[in-house]
Amino acid sequence: MPESKNRKKEGYTPPPAASGPKVSPPWLVPVMLGLMILGLVWIVVTYIMRSEYPVPGIGQWNLAIGFALILAGFSLTTRWR
To answer: Which residues lie below 8 Å from residue 81, measured CB to CB, with a gap of 6+?
Structure first.
């Protein structure tokens, strides 16, 4: 039965070095904090004004808008480096 040929193994080649640490864009942190603070203020105003403001006529949906703003801010934290 024929024997297989011994192959010469290549030496270890490390992966290419990264170009450096990734950095967040400069607009990310102000927008992230701004959305979270705006959402908090929106919810506080909704509770103080008994759901009549900041947008009159939509009632408790003002709370949903406030929470959506806060969630949008928190979603930006996943891109922060």
So the answer is: 21, 22, 23, 24
**52-79 pLDDT, tens per residue?**
899 999 999 999 999 999 999 999 999 9
Could you give the CA distance from residue 65 to residue 81 in angstroms, rounded to a whole number? Answer: 27
**14 located within any domain:** no
Among 19-23, 32-36, 62-66, 75-79, the minimum mean pLDDT is found in: 19-23
Question: For residue 44, what are the domain limits?
Answer: 28-79
Q: In this structure, is residue 9 part of a structural domain?
A: no
Q: Has residue 42 been placed in a domain? A: yes
pTM value is 0.74
3-state secondary structure of 37: helix
Q: How far apart are CA 51 and CA 66, in angstroms?
A: 12
